[in-house]
Specification:
This protein has 383 residues and is an alpha/beta fold. The protein has ten helices and 15 strands. Strand 6 and strand 7 form a beta hairpin. The chain starts with a strand and ends with a helix. Bound molecules: nicotinamide-adenine-dinucleotide (NAD) and (2S)-2-hydroxybutanedioic acid. Pfam families: Ldh_1_C, Ldh_1_N. It comes from Populus tomentosa.
């Protein structure tokens, strides 16, 4: 019988039991930490998380300039209390007690660069931040099994302590490698739970929906398009054959939509002409995904998003797909596809569904690139 779930049991003053009103409030207290909060994505993402009524505490961390962002966002009259943390010495405080940690820290692309060109700088940033996450925000849950031995009328307690991490939403590029890096760091620290680590690929879904609605002439708010694989070039595989509402698009139109979705990030990088990559649409996408995580943690049913997670849906160890809320163990996840989110993070990784011949071909083509990005991340983390 699970009696109670507590975070940072011994050390954190912000543990669930100590949080104001936890027992009586319908909406539980939830702390969200944004790492890289003063950046192009971090600032609008901080704003959007401040507008989210599921958040009670918003911790904004960056290596510099966070006090200004926190003061600014903190004046907004919504539920959460905002605190700003600057520099490595304050990272622990920012992370302590967090339910969801969002990481948009790191350098963005300039025209002519691939996401992989960011590896040399961002891999180190992500590794350092994940080491801190492993140290400062594990959740401890205690299951106490009460065993009554009737014969002798004695009562015996067996205590079982489990260690979980906050849900980690990785935005920093190259996502195809930074998620495996995070997984390795958590494994080394003994805190890895594949249900709690997500590569945020929501922006590809957002783009696929927008482009499809425009081409199919259907209301964008009604559109659904799964996007699977990874988050770079051809590893981004939108499944327009499964898009709804259905539309009668030609093969040429599907090919063009696929290519535009795969090149969406580059389209923005070129339009910004050296001033960075997508920030506003990414903040929107990051806020959608973090909201899904919070809803899942709070027990909402059927929270499904695409995310790049550990997977066994293909032979690749990480893959993006839909994640479903259920309590299945996730030892198998490894490509980006839909996942159901719940109290434990990923509750179920959904399959790819029926693919068109074009999508099957795309799936085979993306595997070598995704595999090599995963291996690069794992190798770096273990150096
Ligand atoms: N997953 C996606 O779909 C997606 C979409 C857009 C951008 N991105 C990626 O997100 C990252 C950030 O993009 P941006 O436009 O916000 O860049 P940015 O340069 O505007 O902001 C990055 C922020 O990270 C901070 N930072 C650097 N090192 C840090 C550290 N060790 N700890 C904490 N903060 C640190 C910087 O100070 C800066 O404020 C890039 O890697 C970019 O490629 C991913
Ligand atoms: O394209 C980039 O470099 C940023 C991001 O991954 C995106 O898809 O917009």
């Amino acid at each position: 019988m699970m009696l109670r779930s507590i975070k940072s049991l011994a050390t954190s003053p912000s543990s669930h039991i100590l949080r104001r009103g936890y027992a009586s409030e319908a909406v539980p207290d939830r702390k969200v930490a944004v790492l890289g909060a003063a950046g192009g994505i971090g600032q609008p993402l901080a704003l959007l998380m401040k507008l989210n009524p599921l958040v009670s505490s918003l911790a904004l961390y960056d290596i510099a300039n966070t006090p200004g962002v926190a003061a600014d966002v903190g004046h907004i009259n919504t539920r959460s209390e905002v605190s700003g943390y600057s520099g490595e010495a304050e990272l622990g405080k920012a992370l302590e007690g967090a339910d969801v940690v969002i990481i948009p820290a790191g350098v963005p692309r300039k025209p002519g660069m691939t996401r992989d060109d960011l590896f040399n700088i961002n891999a180190g940033i992500v590794k350092g931040l994940c080491q801190a996450i492993a140290k400062y925000c594990p959740h401890v849950s205690i299951e106490i099994l009460l065993k009554q031995v009737c014969l002798y009328a004695t009562v015996k307690f067996d205590g079982l302590v489990k260690l979980y991490l906050a849900l980690v939403n990785m935005i920093s590029n190259p996502v195809n490698s930074t998620v495996p890096i995070a997984a390795e760091v958590f494994k080394k620290a003994g805190t890895y739970d594949p249900k709690r680590l997500f590569g945020v690929t929501t922006l590809d879904v957002v783009r696929a929906k927008t482009f499809y609605a425009g081409k199919a002439k259907v209301p964008v708010a009604e559109v659904n398009v799964p996007v699977v694989g990874g988050h770079a070039g051809i590893t981004i595989l939108p499944l327009f054959s499964q898009a709804t509402p259905k539309a009668n698009l030609s093969d040429a139109e599907i090919t063009a939509l696929t290519k535009r979705t795969q090149d969406g990030g580059t389209e923005v990088v070129e339009a910004k002409a050296g001033k960075g990559s997508a920030t506003l649409s990414m903040a929107y996408a990051g806020a959608i995904f973090a909201d899904a995580c919070l809803k899942g943690l709070n027990g909402a049913p059927d929270v499904v998003e695409c995310s790049y997670v550990q997977s066994t849906i293909t032979e690749l160890p990480f893959f993006a797909s839909k994640v479903l809320r259920c309590f299945a163990p996730l030892s198998d996840v490894a490509l980006w596809y839909p996942v159901r989110l719940g109290k434990n993070g990923v509750e179920e990784v959904l399959g790819l569904g029926p693919l068109s011949d074009y999508e099957k071909e795309g799936l085979e083509k993306l595997k070598p690139e995704l595999q090599s990005s995963i291996e690069k991340g794992i190798k770096f983390a273990n150096q």
